[in-house]
TrEMBL record:
Keywords for the protein's UniProt record, in alphabetical order: ATP-binding, Chromophore, Kinase, Nucleotide-binding, Photoreceptor protein, Receptor, Sensory transduction, Transferase
Ranges for domain Phytochrome chromophore attachment site: 145-301
Record-given protein name: histidine kinase
Catalytic activity of the protein: ATP + protein L-histidine = ADP + protein N-phospho-L-histidine
């Protein structure tokens, strides 16, 4: 069974190869006046037979006294669109309206429409129609709404044309059409409020309406008049032809409607896109003049201008209202460190910006929900789906389940989705939701088409009786102003984030320079101070050894104090030098077993342990990828601290172990020593920070700062938990894979 919509879309309706019988057609090659195409039966307007007229100049074969005038007018035709060249009378006395245009394929085309005085009630010129058109313009100008405009347009077109029924037909977003206004007599049924499927006016027919706003079918049962060509070739392009024969499918459609005659005038927006149609029907064959059709075209243009003005006014008013909300949201965002905090500070404004019933902000690992929304897990799945679609700045749909069938499960909350991407790097989105609105649509007959079973030719439906359908899985559509507001908010968020990133980058650069200068200074000072302190210790020791007999007891205490103070200062300088070098040393990562480093650190602590009772509990260790020299210092410092702070325990218990997580190893060193108050834990890893008095436990306060620096350079983190008198546990992590060394300045 063929695809009816596809067949309809592919029908070449602009090149039918024939015209309707109420006129004649002559065509000339591009740039010339020699006839190349002539409609059959055109002998009535020629001085010779059709066969003899091929290749002849136009003014030589026309059977009228104004052939030269038509020839000159023809040469001045615009590039596209029909132009009336005048009313001519043939030698036979028959009158014709002559309409000319240049076809898209370059041919010049003249159409001769029979000027029957009965056509259009005898009103044959635009001048005669002007008073009625002026009154129609005045009535359109007084219309207060789009509905009033449509009602007025339908009534005025019917008054001018005399058709039995005139409809104003508006295209929906998916190209379905809805009859929004109607003016009619008693001979044809009402179609007001009915909806017609997009397939009734297929895509190529809509394109033709955009190029040529007029179409007249005077008698649906007409016999096609073929167009004869001087030589074989492609059929003549009749895009702008008024006499163009129409599709047999459409003629069947008209018969099924019970409308032997019809006329359509397109209503176009300022950008040329179709807004709708003025569609006229008659219960018997009817022909209206070119002047009347032009008058209706003028009315349609006036209607479109008025509609555009009303729609633009509504849009401006809505944008003005939403601009205030945008300003408030922007002010809150700029006042916070994270844009999402500003957005969520007043949830009502975030929802009102787009008229949504729910919203969600996805920023990194954070997901915040406002109002009626799907669950967090469902929102995160939507975020992944949006990310897979690519960096689409704005997505708006009132039928989410059409794009994502799994969304039917959340249709009651999120049939409508408006989403903006707020990062070009990360999957961060702001999403607004609208619920499903179940409604009933009344169609002008069953919208489905079926091909004729015997011929397989596409056939329109045969019934136009009202056919109701319940429409589900759709929300109220997002307005252009709401989508624009969302897009503006996206730009504002990106601006805030970029500005924040620039400020952080500037501060980071300044901090990096300062830290480098500080590191260089500390390295220089500590290096230069090592020798003087060693000299002080050395000479004080010599003084104590060589001059001891001459010192009093007080003098010996003074010298001992000098030696001890200088030695402590020397150790402090060494530690500072080591700390400054830690950020400058290259990180060499290899695979090894850290248990070896733990065993080595225990051996080095043998003297400190002396004869104390220490229970070492060393658990199994995984193979890691790290710098062994630096990791040795980590274990050395942590085990030394554990041994030091357990000296007052009858038996020290020191435990070393490791747990394996999904992406990292978590090491721990636990003891049962003095512990500390967690209120001061933030000072733990600072340089020269001590949580115990020096009289209780010796130390210079740099060891843990070194440990933190080493761990962070490996891409890990370190923290501690403790209670006073109950011991402490230090934990640090190492990634399970080698990572680029973190710069420390």
């Amino acid at each position: 069974m063929p695809d009816s919509s596809r067949d309809c879309d592919q029908e070449p309706i602009h090149t039918p190869g024939s015209i309707q019988p109420h006129g004649h057609l002559l065509a000339m090659a591009a740039g010339g006046t020699q006839l190349t195409h002539i409609s059959a039966g055109a002998d009535a307007i020629l001085t010779c037979s059709v066969e003899a007229a091929f290749g002849q100049a136009l003014d030589r074969v026309l059977a009228c006294a104004t052939g030269e005038v038509l020839r000159d007018g023809f040469r001045q035709l615009p590039a596209a669109g029909p132009l009336q060249l005048g009313l001519v009378r043939m030698h036979s006395g028959e009158a014709f309206h002559v309409i000319g245009h240049r076809a898209p394929d370059g041919h010049g085309i003249l159409e001769f429409e029979a000027a029957d005085e009965a056509v259009g009630g005898g009103r044959l010129t635009l001048e005669e129609l002007y008073p009625g058109v002026r009154d129609a313009f005045a009535r359109l100008g007084r219309a207060a709404s789009v509905q009033d405009l449509a009602d007025t347009a339908a009534a005025e077109v019917r008054r001018i044309t005399g058709f039995d029924r005139v409809l104003v037909y508006r295209f929906e977003e998916n190209w379905d059409g809805t009859v929004i206004a109607e003016d009619r007599g008693d001979r044809l049924p009402s179609y007001l409020g009915l909806r017609f499927p997009a397939s009734d006016i297929p895509a190529q027919a809509r394109r033709l309406y955009e190029l040529n706003p007029q179409r007249l079918i005077a008698d649906v049962d007409y016999r096609e008049v073929p167009i004869l060509a001087q030589r074989p070739g492609p059929p003549l392009d009749l895009t702008f032809a008024n006499l163009r024969s129409v599709s047999p499918v459409h003629r069947d459609y008209m018969r099924n409607m019970g409308s032997p005659a019809s006329m359509s005038i397109s209503i176009q927006r300022g950008d040329g896109q179709l807004w709708g149609l003025v569609s006229c029907h008659h219960a018997v064959p009817r022909r209206v003049s070119f002047a009347i059709r032009n008058a209706c075209d003028l009315l349609a243009q006036m209607f479109s201008v008025r509609v555009a003005a009303r729609e633009e006014m509504a849009h401006v008013q809505e944008r003005a209202r939403l601009t205030g909300l945008e300003g408030r949201l922007l002010a809150r965002m700029t006042g916070t460190d994270h844009f999402e905090d500003g957005l969520l500070a007043a949830p009502g404004d975030l929802l009102a910006l787009t008229g949504a019933t729910g919203a969600a902000v996805l920023a990194g690992d954070r997901c915040t929900l406002v109002g009626a929304t799907p669950t967090e897990a469902e929102v995160r799945r939507l975020g992944k789906w949006l990310a897979q679609r690519g960096q689409e700045p704005v997505l708006d749909t009132n039928a989410l389940s059409v794009l994502q069938p799994l969304a039917r499960d959340i249709a009651g909350i999120a049939s409508g989705l408006l989403a903006i991407s707020v990062s070009q790097i990360h999957s961060s989105f702001v999403l607004w939701f609208r619920p499903e609105v179940i409604r009933t649509v009344t169609w002008g007959g069953d919208p489905r088409k079926t091909p004729q079973e015997q011929s397989g030719r596409l056939s329109p439906r045969t019934s136009f009786s009202s056919w109701a359908e319940t429409v589900r899985w759709r929300a109220l559509p997002w307005s252009a102003a709401e989508v624009e507001a969302a897009r503006n908010l996206r730009n504002a968020i990106i601006g805030v984030v970029l500005r924040s990133a620039e400020e952080r980058a500037e501060l980071s650069g300044r901090l990096e320079r300062v830290n480098r200068e500080l590191a260089a200074f500390s390295y220089s000072v500590s290096h230069d101070l090592r020798a003087p302190f060693r000299h002080i210790v050395g000479f004080a020791e010599l003084l104590r050894e060589t001059e001891a007999e001459r010192f009093t007891e007080r003098g010996r205490r003074y010298v001992a104090t000098i030696v001890e103070a200088a030695a402590t200062a020397g150790r402090l300088v060494d530690a500072l030098l080591n700390f400054s070098q830690m950020g400058r040393a290259a990180l060499v990562q290899v695979e090894f077993d850290p248990a070896v480093l733990v065993a080595e650190a225990r051996r080095l602590l043998t003297l400190e342990q002396a004869d104390r009772a220490v229970a070492w509990r060393i658990g199994p260790m995984p193979v890691v990828q790290a710098d062994p020299a630096m990791l040795r210092q980590v274990f050395q410092n942590l085990l030394s601290n554990a041994l030091k702070y357990t000296r007052n325990q009858p038996e020290a218990v020191i435990e070393v172990g490791c747990e394996t997580a999904a992406e990292e190893f978590v090491f721990h060193v636990r003891d049962n020593g003095a512990g500390f108050d967690m209120a001061y834990a933030h000072k733990l890893f600072g340089v020269f920070q001590r949580l115990h008095r020096a009289e209780e436990f010796e130390g210079i306060g740099i060891g843990l700062a070194n440990v933190q620096r080493i761990v962070e350079r490996h891409g890990g983190r370190i923290w501690a938990d403790a209670k006073p008198g109950k011991g402490a546990v230090f934990r640090f992590t190492l990634p399970r894979r080698s990572v680029p060394p973190q710069e420390v300045v």
